[in-house]
TrEMBL record:
InterPro entries: Nucleotide-diphossugar_trans. It is an enzyme of class 2 (transferase). Keywords: Glycosyltransferase, Transferase. Belongs to the glycosyltransferase 2 family. Its EC number is 2.4.1.12. The keyword Nucleotide-binding does not apply. SUPFAM superfamilies: Nucleotide-diphospho-sugar transferases. The keyword Cytoplasm does not apply. This is Cellulose synthase catalytic subunit [UDP-forming]. One of its GO terms (molecular function) is cellulose synthase (UDP-forming) activity. It comes from Mucilaginibacter gotjawali.
């Protein structure tokens, strides 16, 4: 091979290794989630007390309904308190909230963030509780959600993530978002717990010991991705996260292309921010035996799955062109592992005609995600709001 052919070969080898390692990572946890039985948590008699925080930034369309749904959760009234954090809500919305049996904390910031809202609510929370549960303004908990959370928290976990499931699949975009959430639950929650690692927390539907929540929140200054900062800070301290698979939290999925792109732009920006901040420390913690922290940092290196699903088959097709790159068999193997890891993680309830119709739109979703890489500048310095309530 000449000089140019050497460059092409080693470049293709490097790209292959990066993509193949991601595929293997997803495959291992996906298979583990199916082969290793999930731990069963028996119902317990002792009921801990919960304070439920619901930050609401310009969520007039859904927050009253969400607060009412929280009041309807089946749990002793004297063991749960609901606090809505009202940021930039309309006066008529505030009046409706004041009429409910909840606490309303009105906040106003020059630059709003979820972390600021939660910290202010903590200052205005009276009394002591066993646990704090954080919800998004569109979340609706299953009736027995707190009971199931309590079962897992009672075993000694200081942090527990409930299972977020889709509230709506009314559009192609919402369905793809719902499927993505289901895959995340299978790989990054159920699969990780199956292998003894912490499950991923999301930022809503997560419960923490109240004392730990009060301790960690003042450290959180993130504009976007406050849950990732919390996750890394807690796992650095070797706090293990549990997964309450039976504690269901219904989450509204993005129905429109613009909202989808805004949401993903926020997530990508936070991912790259924490990758830069914690990558070196990830290897340092690995040598100290903190595999959990290293694993969470490695997750910041993963490409969005929609990009992985698009890049790998394109790379395979390019490998069929005669040249100095890797043989097609390598790319075919990567393709098989990638698609197998994703397909076996799709929740069975979504495998229907509607899903197959939605798959047709994947190329457009791939293009949208790819374009977002060129729109990340400054995204982690400004709060990017994703509005809710458009599920018709």
């Amino acid at each position: 091979m000449n000089y140019f052919e050497h460059i092409v070969y080693y470049l293709s080898l490097m790209i292959f290794l990066l993509l193949a390692l991601q595929a293997i990572y997803l495959f291992v946890f996906s298979v583990a989630s199916h082969l290793i039985p999930a731990k069963k948590y028996p119902e317990v008699n002792h009921l801990g007390s919960f304070v439920i925080y619901i930050p609401s930034y310009k969520e007039d369309a859904v927050i009253v309904e969400t607060a009412a749904a929280a009041l309807a959760i089946d749990y002793p009234v004297d063991k749960r308190k609901i606090i809505v954090i009202a940021d930039s809500l309309l006066p008529e919305t505030l009046q409706k909230l004041y009429s409910l049996d909840i606490q309303v904390v009105v906040v106003s910031f020059e630059k709003s963030t979820k972390a600021k809202a939660l910290n202010e609510a903590l200052k205005q929370t009276e009394g002591e509780f066993d646990y704090a549960l954080v919800l998004d303004a569109d979340n609706v908990c299953a009736k027995d959600c707190l009971f199931r959370m309590n079962d897992v928290l009672s075993t000694g976990f200081k942090v527990v993530q409930g299972q977020r499931v889709a509230k709506n699949t009314n559009t192609t975009m919402a369905l793809l978002d719902a499927v993505s959430e289901g895959i995340n639950n299978q790989i990054f929650r159920k699969g990780h717990r199956a292998l003894g690692l912490s499950c991923a927390i999301i930022g809503s539907g997560m419960a923490l010991q109240y004392a730990l929540f009060k301790e960690i929140m003042p450290e959180i200054t993130a504009v976007g991705g406050f849950d990732k900062e919390m996750e890394l800070r807690l796992i650095r301290k070797k706090v293990l996260f549990g997964y309450a698979e039976k504690a269901l939290i219904y989450d509204e999925k993005t129905s429109q292309q613009g909202a989808f792109e805004n949401q993903r732009r926020r997530w990508l920006s936070a991912q790259f921010h924490y990758m830069r901040q914690y990558l070196l420390e990830g290897f340092s913690q690995l040598f100290r035996g903190n595999i959990d922290f290293f694993d969470k940092v490695m997750q910041t290196l993963l490409l969005p799955r929609i990009l992985l699903l698009g890049i790998v088959p394109v790379a395979f097709l390019l490998s069929l062109i005669p040249g100095p790159g890797l043989a097609p068999v390598y790319w075919l193997a990567a393709l098989g592992i990638t698609y197998c890891a994703i397909l076996i993680s799709v929740p069975a309830k979504y495998i229907n005609k509607q899903l197959f119709k939605a798959i047709i739109s994947l190329p457009m979703a791939f293009i949208s995600m790819f374009k977002l890489f060129f729109k990340l500048k400054g995204a982690n310095k400004t709060f990017i709001h994703t509005p809710h309530g458009d599920t018709k």
